[in-house]
Specification:
Radius of gyration: 18 Å
Order of helices and strands: HHEHEHEEHEHHEEHEHE
Strand order of the largest sheet: 3-2-1-4-5-9-8
Distance between the termini: 30 Å
Strand content: 15-25%
Structural class: alpha/beta
Number of strands: 9
Number of helices: 9
CATH superfamily: Vaccinia Virus protein VP39
CATH class: Alpha Beta
Helix content: 25-40%
Oligomer: single chain
CATH architecture: 3-Layer(aba) Sandwich
CATH topology: Rossmann fold
């Protein structure tokens, strides 16, 4: 696994290298457990039936999804721009005796030349992985190159409409107008050297980008429509969690409800 010289690391890599060892601390509460349970439910229909299939975890971070995929019996290739995150993912898989099912590649998603051509049946890209790339079309073409015929990509990106409140709370109407036009914002971090750009998408734009890159969209959901980050106390009861999950699943594919969601999760099949 090659490591980029420290003085040449892009902002997205600097940030994730710095926070890698404590990254998971922000994702241990009831909301994220509920959120991840939904994500897994949405992913399960697209898992390969053949357990010998290769799965790519793009922007793998600390390996949360790589662990679940390896536990399910798949061979997982963990890809991340951050060497620190890859180290954390390696340790997580090793602790559970799953290291033999994993490989690791440090790479920008805009250049996946280190992956075999047509080698993976499924790719997942959860979190900010695709929103941080300089060119989404380029990244999608690189992913398509690494996937088998009819391989499936399941990815999340920030929903553009979810950013409205941030700009209104700051009172910057010009910035809001610009953001809604181009969808471009940046990661909110105090250190300017770690402030990496993020591009957000609406359902129509995301669908169009996937189709232009040679994918057929087979599912698109808002995640999560219910703003449970603000109502975490309602997730403390098992009965309440289950009821809220059922409500969420009724709403998540409703085009009118997607605008409330923080992220969009797309599933698409490679067609060319």
């Amino acid at each position: 696994m090659s490591r980029m010289p420290r003085n040449r690391r892009p902002a997205v890599q600097k940030y994730h290298d710095r926070v890698a060892h404590l990254y998971d601390d922000s994702y241990r509460d009831a909301y994220w457990q509920w959120h991840d349970h939904l994500t897994w439910d949405y992913l399960k229909p697209f898992l390969p039936r053949d357990l010998s299939a290769t799965v790519l975890d793009l922007g793998c971070g600390t390996g949360r999804w790589a662990v679940k995929l390896a536990k399910s019996g798949f061979r997982v290739v963990c890809v991340d721009i951050s060497a620190g995150m890859l180290d954390e993912a390696r340790r997580a898989l090793e602790r559970l005796g799953l290291l033999s099912r994993a490989e690791f590649l440090q790479a920008d998603l805009a250049d996946l030349s280190g992956l075999p051509v047509r080698g993976a049946s499924l790719a997942v890209a959860f979190g900010e992985a695709l929103g941080c790339v300089e060119s989404l079309p380029q990244a999608l073409k690189q992913i398509a190159r690494a996937m088998t015929d009819s391989g499936v990509l399941v990815a999340t990106l920030d929903n553009r409409l979810a950013g409205i409140d941030h700009y209104l709370s700051g009172g910057d109407v010009r910035a809001l107008d610009r953001f809604l036009r181009d969808g471009k914002t940046h990661w909110l971090t105090k250190d300017a050297a770690e402030r990496f750009p993020i591009t957000t998408y609406g359902p129509t734009g995301l669908r169009s980008a996937a189709e232009r890159a040679g994918f057929e969209v087979i599912d698109l959901v808002g995640k999560t429509v219910l703003p449970m980050r603000h109502y975490r106390h309602l997730l403390e009861s098992k009965e309440s969690r289950q009821r809220l999950a059922k409500i969420e699943k009724r709403l998540c594919r409703d085009p009118a409800a997607m605008g409330r969601a923080g992220h969009l999760q797309i599933a698409c099949r490679r067609t060319r």
